[in-house]
Amino acid sequence: MKIIIIIFIIFMFSCTVKMPDIKITGEKTTLEKQILGEYLSIEETEWMLISERGSDNINFETASNRKIIEAVRKRLFLLDEVNEYKIKGFFGEDTTGYITIVSKDKIEGILPKDLDRINLILENENSSRKVIINEVSNKYSYTETKKAFYNLNIDKSPKGTLIRNFEGKWDIK
Prior knowledge:
Elements: H1 2-14, H2 30-51, H3 63-87, E1 91-93, E2 99-101, H4 104-107, H5 112-136, H6 142-156, E3 162-164, E4 170-172
Parallel strand pairs: 1-3
Antiparallel strand pairs: 1-2, 3-4
């Protein structure tokens, strides 16, 4: 009997417990998916409205919906220029959910009329984003909405876009 107990004790101490590997996959949380679903359904509504311009039965339902659909429409209108300025390295995606000028040095020496255009695009894009973030965050957490919007904007940004990480440094997509 003592031999069995000794063998059992030796067996127990020779066993090792291996901790499972933890991998960060970058998958979105359930809340992020809900927020993105909300925004993407608004975008889909905008595309339906664009395709039915001549239709008389379009109903915006509420002033809030009208405001957010107009913001999405403005973003679609600005998309090519925003992406162009991202690729040139003038704009970057910030952790706040907005775009920002990456470096004052980068735009130094640009003609005043071109600089005015860059600033106008920046203002219009960010004001549209603000409307969308504020409207969607009425249903969800403001912080989570901004984070989800940040991730969505990164996903939709062209390759080579500068993206500020949460440590404040710029990475290239």
